[in-house]
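Allow me, if you will, to draw on your knowledge of protein folds for a short while. I have a record of one protein: its chain in single-letter code and its fold written as discrete structure tokens. Could you please explain, in whatever detail you think fit, how the structure tokens follow from the sequence? The record follows directly beneath this note:
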Amino acid sequence: MQFRTMGLLASLSAGLFIGHALSVSSRASAATLPQPAISADARNAVAQMGTTLRAKEFSFRARTIRVYSNKSDLMLHIEHEFAVTVRRPDRLLIDATGDDGPRKLIYDGKIVVLALEGGKAYASLPVPDTIERMMQVVIGRFGADFPLADFLTEAPDKAFLTGVTAGREIDTVMIDGVPCRHLLFSQPPGIVLELWLEKNDRAVPRRLIVTYRSLPGKPNFVADMSDWNFTVHPADVDFAFKPPEGAKELEFGAITDAPHAGAPQ
């Protein structure tokens, strides 16, 4: 995955997106990897997903559970639920609730805003004019990331398979009454990806589990995705942020430095 890292944009997306750290060195390393041994059925399913997720407008919901380490080095779990609205190429809204309270990410093509407590505290940052380039800035400047970000890139299938060295289809299972392909992928060093895609023309992702087998305790990140809607038509006002009276504006770096940062998602 282009954005699969171990960091965390904990102020909003503790468990929303996974991805590679975006750097020249990571891209160079990926270029020297052997040709991936990915079966045709697995590659075709991911390609079909990529075609669907390149849609101009869509929304979905996600429920995530991720592992983090507390001050006593105990492996604990944190849960979040997200409503995500995308309007390519330059609009993104993420409305999140979870164990650590409500929060939002609002991106209007020029500014990205992270808002906590209904906007009572927020931070904003000028960013480039595409969703993917916005994520690159937030990751590159603040060491944060977006778990599940690969699904929002300009080429979701290529982003997901970046760094993957092997993949195959395991079987077909039912998720909420829908047949889904259960796919298994490997990425050095020690990352195992399980991806469930609907077994139909949409091939949207319904579940993702990432296991870090090379880390102590083999922590993982779990995401269940649902309510995919490709008929939405969000307006500009849906991606606008107006701070409420008395809201406190914080430095962007401070608002991303949240308690679970550094834990694998």
Summary: The two ends are 14 Å apart (CA to CA). The chain has a mean pLDDT of 84. DSSP finds five helices and 13 strands in the chain. The helical segments are 24-31, 40-53, 131-142, 156-161, 252-255.
